Amino acid sequence: MPLTSRFILLIFLFFTISTTISQERRVITTAVPFLMISADARASGLGEQGVATSPDAFSQHWNPSKYAFLENRSAVGVSYTPYLSKLVSDVFLANLNYYKVINDRSSWSTSFKYFSLGDIDILENPQDVPYLENPNEFTLDASYTLKLNQNFSMGVTGRFLMSDVKLQNISSDSSSASSFAVDISGFYQSDEKAYEKFNGIWRFGFNISNLGPRMSYDELGKKYFIPTNFKIGSAFDFIFDSANKLSLNLELNKLLVPTPSVPILNSNNQIIGYEQADVSFLSGVFKSFGDAPEGFSEEMKEITLSLGLEYIYNDLFALRMGYFGENEIKGARKYFTFGTGFNLNEIDLDLSYLLSTSEVISPLENTLRFSFTYNFN
């Protein structure tokens, strides 16, 4: 792709360094936003949620505390998500997970995420021979989970983040940025209970993720918040018999970074937009609950909602659908998701598809996502 169009695409993706936002739409922006992309096909098919769904190999992204409840002692999971597939073929998110159940009370897990913005041909002059840049971002993390009792577990995660989106010929002062973060999560799963016409299992989960310092792309430049995030959710399994199970899942999500609320004035002292307050990440967490210019009503608009429905037959086949909703002034992401899954002995294969219902087209519109899990029995 020529430099001009490719670079425009890069800037579109790299809203990580966006400092202003229109007065009408105060969308919260952060560094390394790929961390907010659903990292596996099963969760993607359930409206992009996973904090309280039943445990699987990809729980690392959503709620590592779930690993302590898995029956398989260990597994490895790989997923692939094409990004902006309508425009380019080499922008993608790849995810590799591994977990190990240590004993009946504890487990450890790790994952690696890699987001590639594709190859970019750089030319100073039309006569020059182009050379390639490959902007990319990645994270590497590890978790430890401990059951505090038979039904409740908690986990802690450490994460290293690297963002290398520099284009030296265009911005010679730019450089890669890095940071670190921690997650704190919890998960509750009830025993199977008998109701009048079915059995059931309740689940609840939360995860405060990416608690860490801001990132800077040059020594004197502005610092950008990483996507510190709070997820909370619940689920219920309707167990009709040994072969048929239906799960209902709900998840709420809020970014714990400041709302763009500092007015930006033009030469006539008119407000033309807002930017985020220049505060530490910890101050930003506390400010995020009460800094929206329109008060509590706008704070509520920053919460996204996800609903998911999963039918499983005989632990061999699954059908999924979900809905994700976000307020118009906070990003306007609204879409339905669909998915399916297959179990073949030690192998799980999952696929999902996204259909946008918003005027704002999702970069994942009409994208087929894949996940593969190998369970070590």
Number of strands: 21
Enumerate how many helices there are, as a single number.
Answer: 5
CATH fold field value: Porin
SS content category: mainly beta
Largest sheet: 14 strands, antiparallel, barrel
Terminal CA distance reads 46 Å
Radius of gyration: 21 Å
The average pLDDT score comes to 86
Q: Which H/E pattern describes the elements?
A: HHHEEEEEEEEEEEEEEEEHHEEEEE
Helix amount: under 10%
Report the CATH superfamily.
Answer: monomeric porin ompg
Instruction: Report the β-strand fraction as a percent range.
Output: over 45%
What form results from the Cα inertia axes? globular
Uncertain runs with pLDDT below 50, 5 residues or more? 1-23
Number of domains: 1
Explain how this protein is built.
The protein is mostly beta strands. The chain has a single domain, classed as Porin. Helix content is 9%, strand content 46%. It has helices spanning 3-13, 41-45, 59-62, 281-287, 296-301; strands at residues 74-82, 92-101, 106-116, 120-122, 131-133, 136-147, 152-164, 177-189, 193-194, 199-211, 215-216, 223-224, 229-239, 244-255, 262-265, 271-275, 304-313, 317-325, 334-344, 347-356, 368-376. The strands form 4 sheets. It has a 14-stranded antiparallel beta barrel. Strands 4-5 form a two-stranded antiparallel sheet. The model is unreliable at 1-23 (pLDDT under 50).
Keyphrases for this structure?
377 residues; mainly beta; Porin; 14-stranded antiparallel β-barrel; two-stranded antiparallel sheet; 46% strand; disordered N terminus
